[in-house]
Each structure stands twice: as structure tokens, then as C-alpha cells.
Amino acid sequence: MSTTKKLTEAAILSSLFIVSTIIAVGSGLGYGIYLDFIVPIFFCIICLKCEIKYTILSSVSSVLIVSLVLGNIGTAIWISQGMMIGILCGFLLSKSTTILDDMVYGSILGIIIMIFIDIYGSALIGYSFMQEFQGYSDILVNKFNIPRNIVDIAYYMVIGLFPFGTVFSIYYLSLIVGKKLNILKGNSKKKLLIMQSFKKCGRFICCSKKVFYGCVFFIFTMEIISILGIKSNNIYIKTVLMSAKYLCYYFVIRDGYTAIQNFILSKYQKISYARILTLVTITLLATMFKITAVILIIFNIILDTKINIRIEQINIINSYANSLVHK
Fold this sequence. Notes:
This protein is mostly helical. About 85% of the residues lie in helices and about 0% in strands. The longest helix is centred in the middle third of the chain and has 34 residues, at about 150-180. Keywords: Membrane, Transmembrane, Transmembrane helix.
């Protein structure tokens, strides 16, 4: 009975999506906010309410019907990207992972989704925004004499930050909408309460040990590949790997710094020490980025070995979220 109910709800919501999309896109009002935000939020909500298997079935049937009715392949591709991002966020929200783990998984998978859609789009409509971006990079190097390594870093960071920002926005907005619709439960409800209480418990939000050291391993692997001079001429593979590397750097540095700061605050109970740590870390990152990242990683290995600082932080967050749930 439960299966039939969820399948029926997914079908009803799918029908609602098809009608609203045809009206919005057909009238010319659907581009932008609708396709970038409403579509992924809609399917994130379906995923939270009806489970992922029914959401995938709903998304496939919806995009096929919309593409056949509108006859616009470009719009169908755009909708597909929004659907995949929405389903990804819904899946992550339903899991018992930490919020920062969700951001790591979501951002890296978001890059892969974006690349997949770009390949798909370039094959069907002959346009690739990544190849166009690469063309702009060549202009900056050849016309404005900006060093290639700086342009490449900026390019990969933009490609990495775009899905990160998109996933975070859909993730949080879906929680807000889910609360209004009263469909949040279990892990998704806890994650909303944690995000709403960010000022009180934000400094304890961290990656799990598995994700943190997974990012560390990926960074070291990429750096070794770079030292050995191994390169890929495929623009898509190179973009995925390099963008993921800079995202991993961000999460490792952010998480590593926060863990050290929490240790200092708990041990010495002095905010001035934490502020000094912030100034020193920023200065070192600006002058010796990779060396500073290694130092942060080493300190985190020590803290995890001696006091299991990540497990302690996750336990604090879980205890706080559970207390809010039972209020």
C-alpha cells in the first residue's frame, strides 16, 4: 500500500511539473529562475517525499513528455540538469551524513553532472559552454598576457564553485520548502535544524574522517600526477579532475583550520588565540599555500589520532540536533 501511495504521489507531482513547465517555458517566463531553481527544488521535494526510485521514474517520464511537447532539445537538456541536481540533493538530505560531507559529495558529483550535460548538449545542439570558456581563457593569455597558470586556476575554480554554489542553494532552499510542506523527517529534519542554528553550532560542522582523508588522498594523488608530468588532453577529464582538486583543497583547509581552532578554544578558552591562528593561517596560505595545507593536514592527523576531534565534533552536532528535535 505504501509503495502504491508513493508511486501515485510521484505521478501526480510529475503531472503538475509537466503542466507548469510547459506553461512557464512556453510563455517565455520559465528561463532563468524556473529552470535553475524551481526544477531542482521540485525534484528534491519529490525525492524526500516519494523516495529516489520513484523520483527517477518521474523525472525520466517528465523530461520525455516536456521535450516532445515543446520540441526544444536545449530546454530538455537544461531541465535534465536541474532534475539531476535536485535528485542528488534529495538523496543526500535523506542520508545520515554530515552537512559538510553532503557538500563535498554534491559539489564533486555536480561537476560531473555539469560535464555530462555539456557533452550531451554539444553533441545535440553543437554548443559547449566549457569549450567557450576555454576560448575566453586563451584570449586572456594571448591578448592580455596573463600567465597561463593563473588563468587555468581561475577557470577550474569557477567550474568547481559553480556546482558548489548551486548544490548549496538547492540543498538549503529545499529544506525551507520541505519545512513549509511539512514533509521533513529524520535526517532531513535534523539537517534543517542544524543549518537554522548555524550561529550556535556552526563551528562544529565538519567532514567525517572518511571524507576528509578521502579529499586529502585525492589532493596528494593529483599533486603526484602533476609532479610526474602526466597530463590528459581531454578537456572534460582534465576539468573534472582539476576542479575537484581545488574543491578538495577548499574543504580540507576549511575543515582542518576549524578543527584546530576548536581545539585551541576548548583547551585555552581564549578567543584571542583563535584570532591569532586566523591571521597566521591567512598569511601563510597567501604566501605558502600548499605547504600551509600540508601543515593543517598534519595537525589534523595528530588531533584525530590523539582525541578523535572529528568524532567529538560530529557527536556535539548530533546531540544538539537531537535536543532540538525532541523539544
